[in-house]
User: Fold this.
Amino acid sequence: MNIRKFIIILILFAFIFIPFASNTIAKEKKKKTVRTVEIQTKDEMILTGTLTMPESATVNAKVPLVILLHSLGSNRLTYTTLSQNLKAKNIAVLALDLRGHYQSTTKLSGKKSYWQNYSNKTFAKYPDDIITSIDYIRNNHVAIDVNRIGILGADVSANAAVITANKRKKQVKAIALISPSMSFKGLAPAQALLSYGNHPIYIIVAKNDVKHYKDGQLLAKYASGKVNFVTTQKGGTGDNILKANPNLNVALADWFKNNL
Assistant:
């Protein structure tokens, strides 16, 4: 083979292979923006979550984080739309299966654990589980700014979110609460909300859920920061409200963007 033919072959190879390789690399990069993570708690529960990262996130351009916590009996998949809306706002998202739910039911030993069998003593571990998740992100994902965190919780996890935020108030800058209550499964958030200080709060309750509607109004009085109090006509309790009112996915993403 003479040199001229060899050069022609190299040029043809470049035209064919380089675009293909570039597309492959781009696709792989896109895939890595959504990944499943496993987080081990102090008592060796394995919590499973979905971490969604904006493509722009780097060590030199860190992004804030929103942790999404589902209702009792639900799971992290309920927040798929909200996760994408937050990602579009350049916010990282950790949607977490609570202890005892969906893919967070196994201990390191292999023993199973289900929320239906939990006492209030076990539900009291939820805030510590969230704190463990924050520490996991800090130690493993350097493109996330762990001093700009928001948390969204629904019913039992709304109460847990308030308690967590108060414990990590220097990191957790804003919390959104769907159907919070004065007490649920032993988690009573009023005093923690009072101590949380001048941070913005977003409360969502449905009018057809009388208990949480009244409790939400009471809790709003404990907040020192600005409260967005949103009522819906339908939706019932917890993350079902987002399913019944999908426009809230956009409103919540905008709110977190403005407050983180």
